[in-house]
Amino acid sequence: MTDTATTRTSPPDEDSRPYRFVDHIASLLREDGAARRALASGLRPWTGEPPGAMNRYLAPWLPTDLHPQRLRAYCTVAALMTTASRTGIGSGVSIGTALGRASRSLSATTTELALRRVARHTTAGPYTHLRGAVRLADAAGIALDWARLLRELDSWYFTGSRTCTQWQQDYYRITENLPTANTPTTDSE
Q1: pLDDT, average across residues 12-36
Q2: pLDDT band at 180 (very low <50, low <70, confident <90, very high)
């Protein structure tokens, strides 16, 4: 018998890893102040390896033999989660969507500048500007989908350009009130 309240409908193992990782980090942040402090140490400038304090909490949940760029994605998401008061696991809310929604209650100039910073494709990734974007989203009460962000950062080397484009499109669909693929249309319009 399966408990449907705790069963997540997600693809097999590797595809569900971001969800399991984010669920684990969210649980740690709720229950363990020492874990929160250790994970927050990942907000410091990246030196090529995670701060030692993070390893205790991350190592059991990381794929083996991670490339340093992929390791940075996991460390960054865990660290960023310590700064946000909300989590939208599985919500599909990207950085672009979050900043677009935030522009309704915060300065549109500020949110668009944050978007430009994170959506500038470089092989180094958007890491140095993500904290500011997350702060803006959180200040506006927008819950990011951390698992989505982890997937986007984890594959940045291969799909970063596409991710930047997607974040920009997500933002401008909201700020320009453009219909999305899921927006119903009526014949009477």
Answers
A1: 87
A2: low
